[in-house]
Amino acid sequence: MRHKAAMLADSTLTVPSAPSLADARATLERVWGHADFRGRQAEVVTEILAGRDVVAVLPTGGGKSVCYQIPAMLRPGLGLVVSPLIALMTDQVEALKQQGVAAARLDSGVSMDDRSEIWRQARAGELDLLYVSPEGLAQPHLIDRLHDLPLSLIAIDEAHCVSQWGHDFRPDYRTLGRLAELFPGVPRIAVTATADARTRDDIVRSLRLEDARVVVDSFARPNL
Prior knowledge:
There is one protein chain. The chain is α/β, with parallel strands linked by helices. Helix content is 39%, strand content 14%. The chain contains ten helices and seven strands. It has a seven-stranded parallel sheet with strand order 3-4-2-5-6-1-7, with helices on both faces. Helix 6 (112-123) links the parallel strand 3 and strand 4 (129-132). The protein starts with a helix and ends in an 8-residue tail after the last strand.
């Protein structure tokens, strides 16, 4: 896959067309070995590729991560992923690297030298995805650095953590609504497997996703 820097350079010569669902399917097959999306993945991917916000409730094992990983690989810029657990970030980043996807994470376990290299790669357009924690994103210096980079999307994983009605409530998730003001025009996707109607309403309100399309997979159990 070509580096984002080369893609952005090309855009100065011609106006690039928006990536299509066919492009997404090709990436899905090339990287993950699946010929097509399943469930309502394609609907979610289509929204993000078009630059629109979306809230996606997909069942565990339903491929939630692919719904933002593929658009981040196809859209110009860096895909920012907010994830609640270091272990979860580590697993996803390592899996992506093994599949040849340019991904990195910033957390307390990353050395200063590695951090410097990650920011160099981000500035050079060599990264597709950067994973951070909500607590890390609350740091002003991190926001300042991100403001210097073109973002392809912002993904909020395990979005039910924003809801006071859930067992996994994380106070720092409640501040993520400010991303709408900090990065206007950047499409945002909130994904979760555990969100009843009340929790979905809380996600939409807290994350300021009132205009987002809400996609609920029919296989998601309504009592979750």
